[in-house]
Structures are given as structure tokens and as C-alpha cells.
Amino acid sequence: MKSSIDTIATRHEKILSILKEKKEMSTEQLASDIGVSLSTIRRDLNILEEKNDVIRKYGYCIYNEVNHNYDETGPETIKKQIGRAVKDYIRDYNTVFINSSSTALGALDYFTAKHLTIVTNNLKVAYSSHDNEYNYILTGGELRFPKEVLVGDIATNTITSMNADVCVIGCSGVSIENGVTTKIFHEAKINELMINQTFECRILVADHRKVGKTSKFKISDISIFDYLITDKYCPTDIIKQIESMGVTVIQVQ
User: Boundaries of each HTH deoR-type domain copy (predicted)?
Assistant: First the structure.
């Protein structure tokens, strides 16, 4: 079984390597270059499309350059599945910190608990779905583009003055060696404070692209989180190491 999985993973790497070089190829030509049947290459492309590594058009496919360069893009179906899983850990009357992550903010769409207080530095909460029973609190602070995130002293003072039951934190990288990291210096402190001011349940959300990666600025150690919610493409060896730290890993299907 492991050998079969390794073979598929190796083939996927080869497909991406070829597409990265050639940018665009027909399905038939790609199958020929890889040395597999059309049915096999279509199954492979289905998986790579779900992971957002390729863009498929009728009869051909394209290497998705954007997915490998910008955090706000990504495998939307997977990110929604991760967000949906968060709702199982939110209870009535909870106060919830949500950081600037698109995956973390997307979890709001699936919350079913009543009478929540949502505290976030993510200005995009204004465009998300709203519940009349919820209170929404923006931290205030300096507005940074293009992520539309609030940072700085005002934001940190707001978070420091509050306590939350749950935090939902997205990131740029999760690695055994370097912990949880972000690309944005000004967001690292905000995220750290949200974690420290949470007293019941700390949830880290990260799709497979982030796990095993290290970004520029450390937010925290992995072990401070109660849960990591990720997807089925996350490397098994890393999951086992994270679980050994006392973190419960949830893999959405």
C-alpha cells in the first residue's frame, strides 16, 4: 500500500515538474510524456485540481503559478471543508478570536452555535455572512492592504483587554522545527496575543500546502494548540510528529 502511495506521489511530482516547465499541455500529451493511460492521468489531474496545483480546461491543463505564490489563493474546496470542521468546537455564547487567515474567516460560514461574539482583525468579516444573534468586534488599528487586516498598537491593545473561549488561527507555515509561522511581521504579534488570550480551545487551520513549511515570522510553538485541522493530503509522517506533541489532528476528507 505504501509503495503504491509513494508511486502516485512521485508521478504527481513529475506531472507538476513538466507542467511548470511547459506551462500548458494537452491531457493526451501529458499522459504520453508520463507514460500512463488517459484514465490514470485524468485521475491524477482530478487530485491535483482539488489541491489547486493545476487548472484544468477542456482537453488540456495549466500549472497554477498563483497557488504557489500567494497565501490568499488556494484549494477552495479543501479550505471550505476545513472551515466546516471548525464548527464542531464552537459552543453557544462563546467568544471567538479569528485572525486574518481566509481559511479561519471562512469557518464563520458554517458556525451553528448561538449568541457568539466574534473578535477579529480581519476587515473582510464585513463581506462575510452574518448572524443576527452574533456580536462582531473589529480590533481597530492600522489597515494593511492587500489582505485588509488591522494591525498595530490599537489592535494589540484591544486583544490584550479581552479573553476568548476559542481562537481560530490560520498561518503561512507549520513545521516541526520552527513551529507556526506567518509571512507578515505585523500579524505575528496579533496572532500570538489571540492565542495567549484564549483559555479553552485553540484551533490551528492549515491546508496541506502549509504543513511542513516555514515562513518568515514565528507565531508560536505547535504544541500550544489543542487541534490542527488540515486535509487528507497532509504528510502522514508530519501528522504523527504533531500528534506526539499532544495536538489532536483532524483531517477533512
Answer: 8-63
